[in-house]
Each structure stands twice: as C-alpha cells, then as structure tokens.
C-alpha cells in the first residue's frame, strides 16, 4: 500500500505541476478578458436569477435553481472543509489567497462551461437533456476522440472526488464525534445514496434543492458567529493570508510554489471551475438562452469558494490550528478542532453535521456527472450498472487509506481538466457570440420593464 501511495503522489505532482496551474488560471483569465469582465459585472443579476420564477416554457429537465443546487451539491462538500484545511496545513495561510484568485477567474470558466453545455446539449433516448464537455468537444470541435478521453476520465474521477473522498472524510468525522464505526457510515451512505440516485436527475434536483440551501446557511451561520465573536482577530488573519501568499514562509519547504499549488489545486477541488462539470449540470436546466443559465451557474463558484471556503480558512488561520495538522488523522478533523476552539462543546458537532450533509449532497451530484459521462461512452443501458458500482465504492472509500483517496482524486481531476480547458479556449468564440446575444436580449428586457412601469 505504501508503494501505491508513493506512485499516486508522484503522478499527482506531475499532473498538478506548473503547466496545469498556468492552463487553469490562464484560461480563466483569458475568458474573463474575452467576455469583457461580464462575469463580474453581472454577478448581482446572476444571484437574483437564482430565485426567479421557474421557466416552464423552455426545454430542460429542472429549474435554474435546481440546476445550481445540483452543481453546488457536487462542489460544496469535503473540499470546503477538509480541502481548505489540507491546503492551509501544507501550503500555509497564503493558500487561501490563491483559492480566491482561482475562484475569481474561475467564474468566467464556469460561465463558459455552462454556455457551451446548454448550446450543444442533446435530448437522449429517455427524453432527458444531456450536455457537457463530451458533447461540446464532439459537436463543437469535431474531436470525438478527445470527447471520449474526457468522458472516460470524468466517469472514473467521480469515484474519487465525488465518492471515496467524501465517504472517507464522513466516516472519519462520524467516528471522531459520534463513535460510529467507519464501516457503518460507509454502509449507511451506500443505502441512502442508492435510494436517491435511482430516481435520476429529477429526483436528484428535488432532494438537493432542499438539502443544499439549508446546509450552506447552517455552516456559514456558524462561521460568521465565530468571526463576529472574534472580530478583533480578523484583520490579522487576512493580513497573514495576504503576506504568506507571496512569501511561502508557512508552506512545506518554505516555497511560494507550494502555496500556489495547494491553493489552486484545492480551489479547483472545491469549485471545479475548469473540470467541465458545470456544463453537465447546466445542460439539464430549463432556460431560454445559454447565457442566462450560465450566469446562474457561475454563482456556484462565488458561493462555494469566496464565501464558504473563506469561512473555513478564517477559522483555521485565526485559531492557528493548521500548525497542529500532524496531531489529527484527517483534514476534516483539523477544521472541526478549529471550530471547537471558538465554540466549545458544539463547534466540533457543527462541522461534523455540516460535513455529513455536504458529503451526502456531493455524492448525489457527482453520481449524476459520472453517469452522464459513462452513458455517453456506453449508452443509456449502462446507467444502472454505473449506479450500482458507484454506490458500492462508497463503502470502500470509507475504509481505505486517506492518502490513496486524496491522491487518486487529485490525479483524476487534473486529467479531466486538460481536454476541457482545450475545448474552452478553442470554443471561446461561441461563448463570446452567445454573450453578445444575451446582452442584446437583456437590453430589450430592460426597456420592456421600463415601459411597463406606471406613468412611463
């Protein structure tokens, strides 16, 4: 097992080397400039769209809100609690800064993924919408071989980032806080997830539409309470995050490169901008224009990283608990200890409950992503075998080595990103054209709203 861990860690280091980091951040920056910072300008409108009345006339399977919740379900999870803790423990407080940078440019990346996901989506044999990188690579670039590569990586990656990592962290926290054996947590998750995913995307959309908003508000509320009660420590925490981002003094080996690598890798692990999953979720939404759903989709990055991950990062930096990382068996336990320090008697339970909810929703969301990629490769009849294998892997993830699980997830994430980022760059013209169409449509809507006002 030690040999396997070493091999996976070496491969992970190669995959998440400087070339991929430059490609991820560079693609996001390039797309941000190409759409003339549209993602920043429209953020308030995008957030308002989330709660707009359902679009019942347009094609699609689920609402704007449910599509966003499906995307958030898959991303607001272990990465926000354990991923941030791992990044700060290895890369130092400065890793949080690089997570922010990844998120700000990642908004344009997620926006572009969603536009292309809706633009090139198709209706499958069951009458459901299917879309994502495999479809826009095949239809937009006419590169079936590259689409197959992406789908293969993503179908396997779902077992890492969206499955075994989640069940492993949940099992660890449940064992620490509630003395529940790890195999019991694995078995429980397998049964519960199996009951939900058998109903397909409509069932998934309904479940996450209820769970995700509650769990996010619950976790953010606890984090804000810590910040408010210890507001005097907040400025110094932010100061340390900014200063360490460019010095790397707290990172392993004292290298700035380690800070950047941890921040970018865990930032992507958290919000998935660049992996292509945003396009898969967006393709299922009922929307009249690709760009409208894309705006909704990009808010996922903002909520996930700028808000939720920052809450975790502040708790870790303010408490300086990241300096004691070696004392804990898992990264989630590190975050739990930070909350417990500020909220004695309840902090650990808050993180434990939040993580369990996060894990459940993430697993559900990723089961959908993985299945869509698997059925792209092998047809609709392959969905049931994939679901069975996915549920079985939850139990395995709960009991295997943490290093193997995290390393495996990192490798698969990186391999997913390469074909998707190539497609985003080559199809950026389509993104620009759809954005122009939406701007024109939006201007017309504003004029109609103005004319409809009494006395105008």
Automatic annotation (TrEMBL):
GO cellular component: plasma membrane
Membrane topology: Multi-pass membrane protein
Cited Pfam families: Na_Ala_symp (PF01235)
Location of the protein in the cell: Cell membrane
Chief subcellular location: membrane
Parts of the chain that traverse the membrane: 20-47, 68-91, 141-162, 182-201, 208-231, 237-260, 301-322, 342-368, 388-409, 415-432
Superkingdom of origin organism: Bacteria
Alphabetical keyword list: Cell membrane, Membrane, Symport, Transmembrane, Transmembrane helix, Transport
GO molecular function: amino acid:sodium symporter activity
InterPro entries hit by this protein: Na/Ala_symport
Similarity comment text for this entry: Belongs to the alanine or glycine:cation symporter (AGCS) (TC 2.A.25) family.
Entries under PANTHER family matching the protein: AGSS FAMILY TRANSPORTER, SODIUM-ALANINE, TRANSCRIPTIONAL REGULATOR, LRP FAMILY
Protein name: Alanine or glycine:cation symporter, AGCS family
Organism of this sequence: Salipaludibacillus aurantiacus
Biological classification of the source: Bacteria, Bacillati, Bacillota, Bacilli, Bacillales
């Amino acid at each position: 097992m030690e040999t396997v861990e070493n091999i996976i860690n070496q491969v992970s280091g190669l995959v998440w080397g400087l070339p991929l980091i430059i490609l991820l951040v560079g693609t996001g920056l390039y797309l941000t400039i190409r759409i003339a910072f549209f993602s920043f300008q429209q953020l308030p409108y995008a957030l308002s769209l989330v709660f707009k009345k359902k679009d019942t006339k347009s094609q699609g399977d689920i609402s704007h809100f449910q599509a966003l919740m499906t995307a958030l379900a898959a991303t607001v999870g272990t990465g926000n609690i354990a991923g941030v803790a791992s990044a700060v423990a290895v890369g130092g407080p400065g890793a949080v800064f690089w997570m922010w940078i990844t998120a700000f440019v990642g908004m344009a990346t997620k926006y572009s993924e969603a536009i292309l996901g809706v633009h090139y989506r198709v209706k499958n044999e069951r009458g459901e919408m299917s879309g994502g990188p495999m479809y826009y690579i095949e239809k937009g670039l006419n590169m079936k071989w590259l689409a197959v590569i992406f789908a293969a990586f993503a179908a396997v990656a779902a077992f890492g980032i969206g499955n075994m990592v989640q069940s492993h962290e949940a099992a660890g926290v449940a064992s620490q806080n509630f003395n529940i054996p790890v195999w019991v947590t694995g078995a429980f998750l397998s049964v519960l997830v199996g009951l939900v995913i058998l109903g397909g995307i409509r069932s998934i959309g309904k479940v996450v539409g209820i769970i995700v908003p509650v769990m996010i508000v619950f976790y953010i509320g606890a984090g804000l309470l810590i910040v408010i009660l210890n507001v005097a420590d907040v400025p110094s925490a932010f100061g340390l995050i900014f200063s360490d981002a460019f010095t790397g003094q707290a990172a392993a080996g004292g290298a700035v490169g380690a800070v950047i690598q941890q921040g970018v890798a865990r930032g992507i692990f958290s919000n998935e901008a660049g992996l292509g999953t945003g396009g898969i979720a967006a393709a299922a939404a009922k929307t009249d224009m690709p760009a409208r759903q894309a705006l909704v989709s990009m808010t996922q990055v903002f909520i996930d990283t700028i808000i939720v991950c920052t809450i975790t990062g502040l708790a870790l930096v303010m408490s300086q608990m990241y300096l004691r990382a070696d004392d804990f068996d898992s990264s989630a336990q590190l975050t739990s200890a930070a909350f417990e320090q500020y909220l004695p008697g309840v902090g650990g339970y808050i993180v434990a409950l939040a993580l369990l909810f996060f894990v459940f929703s993430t697993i559900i969301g990723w089961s959908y992503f993985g299945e869509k990629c698997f059925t792209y490769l092998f047809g609709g009849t392959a969905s049931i075998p994939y679901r069975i294998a996915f549920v079985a892997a939850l139990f395995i993830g709960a009991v295997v080595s943490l290093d193997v699980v995290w390393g495996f997830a990192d490798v698969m994430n990186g391999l997913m990103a390469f074909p998707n980022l190539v497609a985003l760059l080559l199809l950026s013209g389509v993104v620009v054209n759809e954005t122009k169409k939406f701007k024109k449509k939006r201007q017309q809507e504003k004029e109609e709203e103005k004319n409809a006002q009494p006395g105008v």
